[in-house]
Amino acid sequence: MSEQRWSALDAILEHKAAKAGVRYVRVNPAYTSTDCSVCGHRQPMPLDTRVYDCGNCGMVLCRDVNAARNICARAYPVRGREGREETSPGVARTNFCQETEHPHGVERKQTLQNSMP
After folding, report:
1. In whole angstroms, what separates CA 44 from the centre of its chain?
2. Are residues 66 and 89 in the same domain?
3. Are 21 and 78 within one domain?
4. Residue 3, CA distances (Å) to 8, 13, 62, 106, 109 in order
5. Per-residue pLDDT tens over the stretch 28-39
6. Full domain range(s) for residue 13
7. CB-side exposure of 107: number of CA atoms within 13 Å?
8. Which residues contact 87 (CB under 8 A, 6 or more apart)?
C-alpha cells in the first residue's frame, strides 16, 4: 500500500473516531510482531512464521496477538510513580490492554496455558 493511501486511511480513521467521540492514537508499527510483548526481546523471523516463540523468556503466542499487545502498550503506556511514561514490555503487562478475562468468560491465563505445546 502506498504512503498516500496510508495517509488517506489514517485521515479517515481519525475523522471517524472524532465523530464517534473516540480517542484515536497513532502508533509506530515497527517491530511490533518481532518484539516479545512480555520481555521485549527482539526476535527477527520470516512473515510466514505465525507463532511467536520467545527465545528469551519462553512466551509462546500467536504472532498477531503478540503484535496487538505491543501496539496497545505503545498506544496506552503505563504511568510510573513520577508520572513518566514507562513503555517497557514488562511494565506494559500491567496495562489495561492486557485482558485478564476472555470475552466469553474463559480466563485468558487458562486459555494461553491450554494452547501451549
Report:
1. 17
2. yes
3. no
4. 9, 15, 28, 40, 39
5. 989 999 999 999
6. 1-25
7. 4
8. 73, 74, 77, 78
Number of domains in the chain: 2
- Give the burial class of 79: count Cβ atoms within 10 A of its Cβ; 0-12 exposed, 13-18 middle, 19 or more buried: exposed
Residue with cell 485482558: 99
**18 and 24 in contact (C-beta within 8 Å)?**
yes
CB atoms within 10 A of CB 13: 13
pLDDT digits (tens, 9 = 90+) for 6-15: 889 999 999 9
Same domain, 46 and 103: yes
Are residue 7 and residue 37 in the same domain, yes or no? no
Tell me how far apart the alpha carbons of residues 13 and 108 are, in angstroms, rounded to a whole number.
Answer: 29
Please name every residue paired with 107 in a beta bridge, in sequence order, or none if there are none. Answer: 101
- Max Cα-Cα span within the chain: 45
